[in-house]
Design a protein that fits this description.
229 residues, mainly alpha, two-stranded antiparallel ribbon, 65% helix, globular
Length: 229
């Protein structure tokens, strides 16, 4: 195996830079919250892995073996499995750090409006691009879950930190995704995307990250508040 075959795996380590940098915050007792984080990661990961496997089978996206370790599970590169572990862990760490560092900074009504705007946008995009599979499923599922979160009305007090964590998480996410696309490690079928990109990253990938983090954080907070185990 050549170093090139470890490209995707090594790039995933970038997601750990911010948590390591923030780890000096002593009040963030992250390790003690793993019992709430891991169920969220497993549940969300199962959804995204099934999605990933199916879209790989349909050739909506494909992977360049030149940049992969060659280890696969259920036809999916091991690197993709790790994505759904490393990114949520990194982002939830950032989220917890924000809760400690900016404890008094809360704008729930502002971010409720942001959520409603996102709900409208994702719903419209899902309809407009309903014939493009990556676009449709990303925005449709985002609209459904965001709508559930907003109208269930139990997540309002967490909106501020969630959106701040999302913005910070976009830094390593866009960095890694842009590098992956430049090789390319992942190739997308343009017939199933909107054709819009940010730093070479399909806009759908940002919606993909939004949904992944929203599912993880909402489940994490639900379990964290119950504290029955």
């Amino acid at each position: 195996m050549e170093i090139q075959n470890l490209s995707y795996l090594l790039l995933l380590l970038i997601f750990l830079v911010i948590p390591v940098a923030l780890s000096f915050q002593k009040k963030v007792r992250f390790v003690f919250r793993l019992k709430y984080i891991l169920p969220a990661v497993i549940f969300a990961g199962a959804i995204f892995v099934m999605w990933d496997i199916r879209f790989t089978q349909m050739r909506i996206w494909s992977f360049n073996a030149d940049y992969l370790s060659g280890i696969e599970l259920l036809g999916l590169p091991i690197e993709e499995w790790l994505v759904f572990l490393i990114i949520p862990l990194s982002s939830i760490y950032i989220y917890e750090w924000l809760k400690v560092r900016f404890e008094d900074f809360e704008k729930p009504n502002v971010f409720l409006i942001v959520s409603l705007v996102f709900l409208l946008i994702t719903g419209v995009l899902a309809y407009v691009f309903r014939t493009r599979m990556f676009s449709f499923f990303t925005f449709f599922l985002s609209a459904i879950y965001l709508g559930y979160t907003v109208f269930r009305n139990r997540f309002k007090k967490y909106y501020t930190k969630f959106y701040l964590a999302l913005v910070i998480s976009l830094i390593p996410f866009l960095t890694v995704s842009a590098i992956l696309n430049s090789f390319p490690v992942i190739v997308y079928d343009s017939a199933h995307t909107m054709g819009l990109a940010l730093f070479g990253v399909p806009v759908e990938k940002i919606g993909y990250l939004f949904l992944l983090l929203l599912i993880n954080v909402t489940i994490y907070e639900y379990l964290n508040n119950r504290r029955r185990y």
